[in-house]
């Protein structure tokens, strides 16, 4: 879930070569290919955000490609691979920051870490659904609420570690990534070895599949190999793609967006732009921004569990329809809220 909190790294990384200097080592005419290998220019935030974009793409691809393998190999093996990819991706990213090679950061935290994200996302979902056949929506919500909540802990932790490791010569990011990567490997391996699956045909005590079903809850079954051949699959995929794209767009830049848009307003100094703040003031608003990312993560947790559990009662179709309608209204209201200067 810390994937949703990676935005706390973007601003520190964008000044990695100019720590303690009044101006960044900027190269405004630098192309993407140059940015990938430069050792003399600070990275742009737009180049750093690609780490998140690559990771999210790999999450979807790895979940789709390796979903069948997970069912054959079991969630424990998938969890082990997820731990090594996600934690190892952080370690490779730390090495990339240390030698100032953006391509290594993309490779580690984006490509390899994204594979770990996908496997780490679907392995608990697959397991919990088997344990709760009577509450499949709730079981899914229990699994993905943990994924959504990772940033609530990880973002403030990363901000604290960056401040701890920061010196006059280093931004403190590579040390933070290395420590967090090692921690992820340890804790995720512990979780993977704790997986247990019920025997085939297992049911909770006293529960039998109901004879009559809610008309809004489908009882049909389409095999995985045939799902993509149906119109319904692509319509659901489209709704999910649009919904996630909007949310991911905010999450990818949540921390720098809050800092650069509101600037001094966050610390009671309206009219003071972000670029006019001193190092101490920027540290204050960085902590506030990390808290904001954590708040997003908190509501991410609650929303995942609430909507997934509600879908057991009102059906998946109505749940998706609500996502589509409510999401459109809320995103349309965002520019209006920004226009009146409302932080709430």
UniProtKB/TrEMBL annotation:
Residue ranges occupied by any Major facilitator superfamily (MFS) profile domain in the UniProt entry: 1-344
Taxonomic superkingdom: Bacteria
Matches recorded under PROSITE patterns: MFS
InterPro entries assigned to the protein according to its UniProt record, in alphabetical order: MFS, MFS_dom, MFS_trans_sf, Proton-linked_MCT
Record's keyword annotation contains Metal-binding: no
Keywords per UniProt: Membrane, Transmembrane, Transmembrane helix
Any GO molecular function: transmembrane transporter activity
Regions crossing the membrane: 48-66, 78-98, 104-125, 137-157, 177-195, 233-254, 285-306, 318-338
Pfam families xref list: MFS_1
PANTHER family in the cross-refs: MAJOR FACILITATOR SUPERFAMILY (MFS) PROFILE DOMAIN-CONTAINING PROTEIN-RELATED (PTHR11360:SF317), MONOCARBOXYLATE TRANSPORTER (PTHR11360)
Protein name as catalogued: OFA family MFS transporter
Organism: Methylobacterium planeticum
